[in-house]
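Q: Given only this backbone (303 positions), what sequence would you predict?
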């Protein structure tokens, strides 16, 4: 499939000016009964987005749940969720195309119909606890090319070192992503993936294509070590109840806001304060789909 023309801009020089904080508030793996603060309804998700934005988040990585709080890729719910988050918050809206390990490829591809600003693109198959998270190369190609056509910015999800090679291969063979910039997210400490250690982080970052900005998140007890290593290595942060349910060992997370507040605090300590959503739009090169735009330009209409 041929790639769509994209603007040739690279904002990698801005990557360390501030810290892009992504909140991944829900995920597909945790049951509401196990973590009552997990946002599973649209109202809970919007309230979480608003609180996390106030605490310093600029981007929300979204998985939606059905009326029984089970993970779903229902197209109507995805559309409604994107619309509500766009109307009620200033956050960049990223939909998960990873879904749950049981989701079929067709439903994962159809996520793009909801017209998010960004979508995740997992860069390879990985053991995922007792399960396998399957990402076949032809599926990755199809997803990547559809993102180019739909003008959706991919976030390359890296669960293992070899996934960086697959990311480079996608770009080399099919051209740059929409927006012209590359952004990866290192998801570290999944049982079956790369460990959540500074050594693994440094190795993965060294392998990224030049000019790639990157975030990192550590699963479970890897959360804090990965966040601190990422900041010291010039990366951005993803936090949230998708990735951890403990604030510190033995202390359950109060809610997503608590994790964003901590991320913002350590980012300020590192003299790289949280980036605004507008700066994040510029960094990632997203198409501005917010309501009240002037003729589709990337600026809000002034009153
Ligand atoms: N829930 C995992 C199987 C993504 O959002 O793109 C996949 C996942 C990755 O969470
Ligand atoms: Zn996810």
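A: Predicted residues:
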């Amino acid at each position: 499939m041929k790639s769509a023309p994209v603007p040739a801009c690279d904002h990698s020089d801005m990557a360390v000016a501030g810290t892009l904080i992504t909140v991944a508030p829900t995920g597909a793996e945790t049951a509401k009964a196990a973590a009552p603060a997990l946002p599973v309804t649209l109202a809970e998700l919007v309230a979480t987005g608003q609180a996390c934005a106030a605490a310093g988040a600029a981007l929300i990585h979204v998985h939606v749940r059905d009326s029984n709080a089970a993970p779903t890729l229902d197209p109507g719910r995805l559309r409604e969720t994107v619309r509500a988050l766009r109307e009620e918050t200033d956050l960049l809206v990223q939909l998960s195309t990873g879904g749950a390990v049981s989701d079929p490829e067709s439903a994962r591809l159809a996520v793009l119909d909801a017209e998010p600003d960004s979508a995740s693109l997992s860069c390879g198959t990985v053991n995922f606890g007792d399960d396998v998270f399957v990402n076949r190369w032809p599926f990755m190609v199809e997803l990547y090319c559809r993102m180019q056509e739909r003008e959706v910015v991919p976030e390359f999800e890296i669960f293992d070192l070899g996934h960086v090679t697959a990311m480079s291969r996608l770009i080399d063979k099919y051209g740059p992503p929409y927006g012209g910039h590359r952004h990866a997210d290192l998801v570290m400490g999944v049982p079956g993936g790369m460990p959540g250690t500074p050594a693994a982080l440094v190795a993965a970052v060294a392998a990224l294509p030049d000019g790639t900005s990157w975030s990192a998140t550590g699963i479970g007890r890897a959360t804090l070590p990965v966040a601190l290593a990422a900041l010291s290595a010039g990366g951005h942060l993803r936090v949230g109840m998708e990735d951890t349910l403990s604030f510190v060992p033995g202390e359950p997370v109060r809610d997503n806001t608590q994790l964003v507040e901590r991320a913002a605090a350590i980012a300020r300590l590192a003299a790289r304060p949280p980036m605004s959503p507008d700066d994040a739009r510029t960094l990632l090169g997203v198409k501005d789909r917010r309501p009240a735009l002037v003729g589709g330009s990337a600026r809000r209409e002034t009153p």
